[in-house]
Amino acid sequence: MINADPHELRKFSALAHRWWDPTAEFKPLHQLNPLRLDWINSYTQLRGKRILDVGCGGGILAESMAQLGAQVKGIDLASDALSAAELHRLDSGVMLEYEEVSAEALALREPGAYDAVTCMEMLEHVPDPGSIVSACAKLVKVGGWVFFSTLNRNLKSYLFAVIAAEYIAQMLPRGTHDYARFIRPAELSSYARAAGLHLHAFKGVSYAPMSQHFTLSDDTSINYMLACVRV
Ligand SMILES: C[S@@+](CC[C@H](N)C(=O)[O-])C[C@H]1O[C@@H](n2cnc3c(N)ncnc32)[C@H](O)[C@@H]1O
């Protein structure tokens, strides 16, 4: 059985035409992107590297990594989101490749093929995140980096990431996130260790609503990222 939630894929496909509007539903991803791109690039110089972006959506991160000189492939299961990514790629002239395939299926076809794998803001949208983490670990070379970002699960993250972001500030459409699928750092750690990944660093991502800026922080209580190395 495929590890995907059809409702989630429909939701992201339905918003495909809005993906590259920096003022629309994906504004937070546009705001976050320079920060996460720098963070990833600080671990693995992207130029010349073969990178896989799992759950790439409309390609915000994938395209920016290609612009830094990486050879990027983006995969997703939301067809219309991938079409938006491909159309934007044609417009921007950036060289990268997209494919509609699951991480698990690609891991069988291309094990150890990538210098680094990114899987950002995606794990909290799938039924079995451990299976995605395991596939990411299989896809990267030994010694390669794997980067995840997701949402912590606690009262604070519920209040900020669901109630405030979706209902009060309306930064995100209602129903964007299902709190039950948020992932505690300890849970992500155990998925990563079970997949043969060495945990290198957790980093918090904080949002300042007044300035509408994301910054890196040591506070992992809401949004956080994890950098791992395949051992
Ligand atoms: C919040 S978006 C994040 C997009 C991108 N990673 C970013 O951070 O800019 C979540 C993405 O995960 C994708 N997704 C959900 N389930 C998936 C699955 N099982 N396999 C691949 N992609 C999936 C959705 O279609 C959507 O594009």
TrEMBL record:
It comes from Linnemannia gamsii. It is found in: Mitochondrion inner membrane. Belongs to the class I-like SAM-binding methyltransferase superfamily. UbiG/COQ3 family. It is an enzyme of class 2 (transferase). Mg(2+) binds at residues 121, 124-125. Component of a multi-subunit COQ enzyme complex, composed of at least COQ3, COQ4, COQ5, COQ6, COQ7 and COQ9. O-methyltransferase required for two non-consecutive steps during ubiquinone biosynthesis. Catalyzes the 2 O-methylation of 3,4-dihydroxy-5-(all-trans-polyprenyl)benzoic acid into 4-hydroxy-3-methoxy-5-(all-trans-polyprenyl)benzoic acid. Also catalyzes the last step of ubiquinone biosynthesis by mediating methylation of 3-demethylubiquinone into ubiquinone. Also able to mediate the methylation of 3-demethylubiquinol into ubiquinol. Its cofactor is Mg(2+). One of its GO terms (biological process) is methylation. Keywords: Magnesium, Membrane, Metal-binding, Methyltransferase, Mitochondrion, Mitochondrion inner membrane, S-adenosyl-L-methionine, Transferase, Ubiquinone biosynthesis. One of its GO terms (molecular function) is metal ion binding. Pathway: Cofactor biosynthesis; ubiquinone biosynthesis. This is Ubiquinone biosynthesis O-methyltransferase, mitochondrial. The keyword Calcium does not apply. Coiled coil: none annotated. The lineage of its organism: Eukaryota, Fungi, Fungi incertae sedis, Mucoromycota, Mortierellomycotina. It is a peripheral membrane protein. It catalyses: a 3-demethylubiquinone + S-adenosyl-L-methionine = a ubiquinone + S-adenosyl-L-homocysteine; a 3,4-dihydroxy-5-(all-trans-polyprenyl)benzoate + S-adenosyl-L-methionine = a 4-hydroxy-3-methoxy-5-(all-trans-polyprenyl)benzoate + S-adenosyl-L-homocysteine + H(+); a 3-demethylubiquinol + S-adenosyl-L-methionine = a ubiquinol + S-adenosyl-L-homocysteine + H(+). Its EC number is 2.1.1.64, 2.1.1.-, 2.1.1.114. S-adenosyl-L-methionine binds at residues 36, 55, 76, 120. One of its GO terms (cellular component) is extrinsic component of mitochondrial inner membrane.
